[in-house]
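re the bet — no i am not wrong, look at it urself. input seq straight from the record:
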Amino acid sequence: MENRKAFCYCHIDGEIVLDSNRLQSYDGGRTVGVMLDENMTLSEFVKQFEQKAGTEIGNKRLMYVLPFDNSQLLDLINDDSLKDMISFGDQCVHVYAVSIATGQPSIPLNSSTNARNTKAFISVDCSISGCEWHLTAYRVGGTNFMRVGTFNNQYFHSAQDLVSIDPCHRGKLTSHLVADKLRLLPNTTPNQIRSAIETEHGILLNYKQSWRCREQSLVDINGRPEDSYRLIPWICKRLMETDQRTIAKWTSSGGMRFAQLFIAYGSSIVGFVHGCQPILFIDGCHLSGPYRGTLLSACAIDADNQIFPLAYAVVSSECYKDCYWFLKNVKEIIGSVKVTIVSDRNHNIRASVAEHYGHEYHAYCYRHIKENFGDEVRKLFPRVKQAKENALKLMDAIAYARIEKDYDVALENLRLFKQELASWVLANEPEHWVMSKFCHPRWNHITSNIAESFNSWIRIERHHSIFALINEHRDKLATKLFDAKATISSWKGEVGPNIEDKLQENIARGEFLHVVPYGYHLARVNTGKVDLAVDLATMSCICGEWAMTGIPCPHAAAVIRMKKLNIYDFVQHWYKKSNQELIYHNSIKPVEMHDVPTLESMDRSFIDSDETFLLPPITKVPVGRPQKKRIESQFNKKRDYTCTRCHVVGHSRRSCKNPNPS
């Protein structure tokens, strides 16, 4: 028996419209012809359709009509439906590739409907009283396809019904409209999406609909957050294949659930070991994705005192186990380099630093110390603002004292102010945060602001899935390294712009100091209050600033100027242009991402091979909206209110109680 054949008109890039008689027609787009055979499969038909049209069908919906009923659109979903189309097509059929959002007439979809849905059966009725619109569909075998059972496309709506309905726009139907915008601007808000869709497509969404549209678009772009954990072994392997110096490792808990991830790129490791000052800033910040967690980071500084990211880890929290694992990996990548660690006083970080680097190399962040000291002052002087300000000034004098004598004087002043506060300072390990007490170089970095800058630098990426975070951080780091390397050629001298500004400031401060030479390298500098000794041979000044910063202090600058020497010769090599070139000599290599495994391929690999795929961690999501804004420091400057009635600072006109305003 001869195979049954039919000629198919394939329509694409247009839209289906209804005429006054409810007949379907296709407006716009292009039409190509494909010869059908009853032995042809749906995948073969789609392949020929795409070849003739010169484009991919993608997520478009394939629909067809039969000659004896041009008002009914039928879904072309499997091989059986293709055979039905050929059998009843009478040698000529029409197939339409329709966008998901515009695949059906708009009135039933935009009407409010009542649905009774399960995974195996769907029943939908129009909720407007008297309307006969009705649809039922059932699942085809064990597939994800649904076959329409009954469909009554007759609807009866009054004019009042049409103006009173609340349109229901599903996130999956409208998400593709904003996908391109979110790829470029992932931080677009739901309200901005509402305005864009209304302006460009004439679709009115409420806030909840636009929020769901945004969430669905991000899933379409980045994949489901739970699926991204399955790609971690693959991306770690690919990163180390791309650059053998890169370290990317992960661990899992019971049941192959994700536990920890550590990544340090080869260009960052080599740049730090060969050029950066041996000081690291450690901090952690919360991830606000669906599985939460903490991102631990280790950052250094380059020759111009700019942030240089070294490594990061994604872990469950700042517990001892995670901090120990992270700092152990950092220790391994830097080798035998002796580094100073700057961080807050988190007890898990403290214990881990002591284990791997030695407790004496741990410098505490003074900003966090000052926060705790401020809380102590508030307890002793409740509701006394001036007392707190005075106590904090005395605390600053203690922390920034560069020589032992200045520290003793500052501590005695605090003791005279309040004995309990002086005792608090002595009880909180001043040898780890006072400049004159810390016995290892820290290059004048008394806070962990560099690590805080890293947290702010990846503020947007912290909200995304872990796979998106890895890729976006890599792109961002590659751009930063490239830009920093490009700016080296614009350095006017032997040091960077920030160091140049500091040198010029110190030269200006030392311009009117009186210098008495005591030899080729020795000099005495009179400031008007005290005499200070400067030794150019050992690059030291009795004030302590030169030794602690590596940059000539104002007293040294005055001596160098008097002797007409090259001031750049007395700057430590960490700040030189040659060191900056070593730091940024290597760049991150692009990672091939064209063959990222799909869910289907990962499922087949899991069955057919011994490939490892991770499951997401088990987390408990707290009640309420996730907190995305950081808690502000008590030292953040706030605007002081000035009363417009009495012109007194401290309150507003509404709360003014002054009986006689001026």
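see?? Confidence is low (pLDDT under 50) at residues 101-115. told u. also The first strand starts at residue 5 and ends at 12. so pay up
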